[in-house]
Design brief:
alpha/beta; 2 domains; 13 strands; binds ribulose-5-phosphate
């Protein structure tokens, strides 16, 4: 394996710390996607080798494959009802715990698993914390049929909220130029917004557009964020009372609903 960058060191440290802090014997866990979450899965696998009994629901085929390779037992929603926690990483997270996710194109499954979890733990290297979301392009998962029209609708909606007509809306492609296809067979359109003033509104309204399956603004889902610096300094941020852009039936969402 190539030497780890300082950011990778931080991702690894936070993955290990999250296992120590949040995982208990017998837990049903949502397993996030992306490099930070994969450090968590590796650290979890080490505990499983030592006899820890847990079962996980993966948020992508990549995470499923890693868990199977490392011997982390998996389970499906055909067998279980709810998860105690989900542990997943952001592309950006703000001080309320609102996130941009989907850099790995797994946002739809990530959000399905998040909705089934009683507690959402975000694992992040400290460079992911932002005062304002949006420098990272916002991933929007759209079905293939009519995607060009869906993308134009996204542009019109963004303009209604004051974003420029020039905001690039780019269908994500692989290095050879072919479109990225998600685990559910959809495309990803990345919206280069640069700065998002109103994440709750954009989270809510993007999903109104026919053809949009999910968007990468995860508002009011995270309960706690655990951060690490490259030198392994761990800190946490509670965000369990941050409002959500759209109704959820998670304990977090229901707490908001009853005030
Ligand atoms: C995948 C995701 C990832 O969790 C997000 O991109 C963070 O990735 P990484 O931990 O590699 O920085 O949302 O869809």
């Amino acid at each position: 394996m190539a030497p780890l960058t300082p950011q990778d060191e931080a991702k690894k440290a936070v993955g290990i710390a999250a296992v120590e802090r949040y995982v208990r014997p017998g837990m049903l866990l949502g397993l996030g996607s992306g490099t930070t979450s994969h450090w968590f899965v590796r650290a979890l696998a080490d505990k499983v080798k030592d006899g820890l009994e847990v079962r996980g629901v993966p948020t992508s085929n990549a995470t499923r494959d890693l868990a199977l390779e490392l011997g982390v037992p998996l389970v499906g929603f055909d067998e279980i009802d709810r998860l105690e926690i989900v542990v997943d990483g952001p592309d950006e997270v703000d001080h309320d715990g609102h996130m941009i996710k989907g850099g790995g194109a797994c946002l739809l499954w990530e959000r399905i698993v998040a909705d089934a979890a009683d507690r959402y733990i975000v694992v992040a290297d400290s460079s992911k914390l932002k005062d304002r979301l949006g420098a990272f392009p916002l991933p929007i998962e759209v079905i293939q049929h009519g995607w060009e029209s869906t993308t134009r609708s996204i542009g019109r909606l963004l303009q209604l909220h004051g974003y420029s007509a020039e905001v690039p809306l780019v269908r994500r492609a692989t290095a050879d130029g072919s479109p990225v296809i998600t685990d559910s067979g959809n495309f990803i359109v990345d919206a280069h917004l640069e700065s998002i003033d109103d994440p709750l509104v954009i989270d809510r309204e993007l999903n109104w557009i026919p053809g949009v399956v999910e968007n990468g603004l995860f508002t009011g889902l995270a309960d706690e964020v655990i951060f690490s610096t490259p030198s392994g300094e761990i800190s946490t941020m509670s965000c369990e009372h941050a409002p959500a852009g759209r109704p959820t039936t998670t304990p977090h969402g229901l707490r908001d609903r009853v005030g």
